[in-house]
Specification:
Elements (H helix, E strand, L loop, with lengths): L3 H6 L27 H15 L6 H8 L3 H4 L6 H12 L12 H18 L3 H5 L7 H15 L5 H31 L4 H13 L2 H8 L2 H7 L4 H25 L2
Helix pairs in contact: 2-3, 2-5, 6-9, 8-9, 9-13
């Protein structure tokens, strides 16, 4: 086990992927039958989906697996190790393009898949901004993204900027979308009901009504009869803008 003091002194070593782990305690004959790191990771994902980061603990996870909390430490050193393993495991849900396709098509597909992943597992958003994301599944997705960016024809020194522009946008868009959906579900409301209630309340407050009224024309021009439709229009057009920007910068001397 890596001492907590060592992890504080060397934050980069906190990644489970950077440590050659040797168990600090021997396996015991009473170790739960069928328990292994993969099973623990799958249970971690289920618990995180159900309870979020705030509700995740080694004790809760042990209860889900019907084992003692100490049993989990035969397979991981810390809760952070499990969070990293869970984060990397959900990247298997992404399906990088296998067949040759035009780069714009591939980029749109990867962006939409990544957005859906963040919305589906909203807890990965803060974790992706905390950990190094160098697990095998995360790296496969990263390689797929880099391959697409390379195929845009951008000069090498501009490719990381393009990658950041597209996927940090998707990260932020998906995070806001996922949190909004979670808030609606927590209140037992549809997204449209929540939106309508919020807007009605805002319009009833004089100091906020003026702000909303000044954007009515803009919102009407966007179109869309539901929150989902409005969101899809915004996401699609924003992605078009980013792709157009890549094309423009590619052709600029």
């Amino acid at each position: 086990m890596v001492p907590a003091s060592d992890r504080v002194r060397s934050p980069a070593r906190t990644s489970v992927w950077l440590e050659q782990r040797t168990p600090s305690r021997p396996r015991r004959s009473e170790s739960p039958v069928g328990l292994d790191r993969d099973k623990i990771t799958r249970a971690s994902v289920r618990l995180l989906d159900a309870e979020g980061l705030a509700g995740f603990s080694m004790r809760r996870l042990a209860a889900e697996l019907d084992v003692t909390a100490m049993s989990l430490y035969w397979y991981v050193d810390t809760k952070d190790d499990l969070l990293e393993l869970a984060l990397d495991s959900v990247y298997t849900e992404l399906d990088p393009p296998r067949e040759p396709a035009e780069w714009r098509v591939q980029l749109r597909a990867l962006a939409r898949d990544y957005r859906e992943l963040i919305v589906r597992h909203i807890w990965i958003s803060p974790l992706a901004g905390t950990f190094l994301n160098i697990g095998p599944n995360s790296m496969l997705f990263s390689y797929a993204v880099q391959d697409v960016i390379r195929s845009t024809g951008l000069p090498l020194d501009r490719q990381t900027g393009a990658l950041a522009a597209v996927f940090q946008f998707v990260y932020g868009f998906g995070t806001v979308e996922g949190n909004f959906k979670a808030r609606c579900e927590a209140n037992g409301l549809t997204q449209d009901d929540f939106h309508q209630q919020a807007m009605s309340t805002i319009r009833s407050l004089p100091h906020l009504r003026q702000i909303v009224e000044s954007t009515d024309e803009l919102m009407a021009a966007r179109g869309g009869n539901t929150v989902e439709e409005m969101r899809e229009r915004d996401f699609g057009f924003a992605l078009d803008l980013l792709i157009a920007g890549i094309e423009a910068m590619r052709d600029r001397p």
